[in-house]
Design brief:
This is 3-dehydroquinate dehydratase. The chain is an alpha/beta fold. It is 33% helix and 17% strand. Helix 3 runs parallel beside helix 5. The chain is globular and about 35 Å long. The N and C termini lie far apart (29 Å).
Length: 154
Amino acid sequence: MKIIILNGPNLNLLGTREKAIYGSRSFEDYFDELKEAFPALELSYFQSNTEGVLIDKLHEVGFGSHKGIVFNAGAYTHTSLAISDAIKAIETPVVEVHISNVFARDAIRHKSMMAPFCQGSISGFGLESYRLALQYFERMKPKQIGFGVKNQSS
């Protein structure tokens, strides 16, 4: 089963950026660990600081080539109607993840523009938030994934 992990702005700085919030590991190191932990999943990883590039990647993988998307859109989570619309438009289910507990941070981070169109949201478990999302995809049978979230109206 092909699953892609998408990371948005500033997540390329993991391991060096605000270590008290985001930890001291790079995502690339953690991704190697995830690939070992989930041998049954065909994992790929993509990161961009650019909103349009992330939307293009959602369009590219969102119509059958992948069975799931694990997406940490960073600050775009709270501001991007365009990313929200892209998630709503694609068929591939998305699980929203965040390293920090967004609800323990500034108020603007308490609202996710994309959450209504995602299978679910995971936050506050550090890098382990990604592992939890992958466990969801690993344990779900293909017909259980995408159980109708896309049919909700906004």
